[in-house]
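Might I ask for a little of your time on a matter of protein folding? The record follows directly beneath this note:
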Amino acid sequence: MSTPFFFKTVILIIFVGIIILNFYKIVLARRIICHKTDWNVQIKMEEMKGELCMSEQLKKKMMDMLDESGVGTLATIRNSKPFSRFMLFFYEDLTIYAATNKNTHKVEDIETNPNVHILLGLDVKNANGEYFEIEAKASIDSSPESRQKFWDEKLRNWLSGPDDPNYILLKLEPEHIRYFSKAGEHPEELSI
């Protein structure tokens, strides 16, 4: 083997190694690790020059959307078929709540299968606008504190008040969130 060929080979190997190392750094810097602890979702991400973590941005967008309208659809499973209905949603951190009467099919559905799907956003005025798809686990919350905290006068059409014996909350804990900034675009995703 000649000396010039040997040096060219070594330089090529070093160059390829540097490219692979830089690619690994980029992938590592964008990695998001999410885990649950004591009902709080803690999101860790390596510092990216003072920018908000993508998952924090998604969380803020979702909360802004819930603050703006609060209306979306909730799908449950009954007899292996999906059933959807419009709901008024509330939230605390990443946990979403929906008020309902305890004597409804959706409560029976959730007791049988806690997997639900939520759609938020996208209205008739803005058919190409942003929206969220959220896969969640549902449970029932009938505590007086939660019922009082999430009571909204808009619920009077279905329930008499926060002390109505039939008033319960569906506690919806997201497992996977997809955000579409525009219809037809690829989503930003967050698994929890």
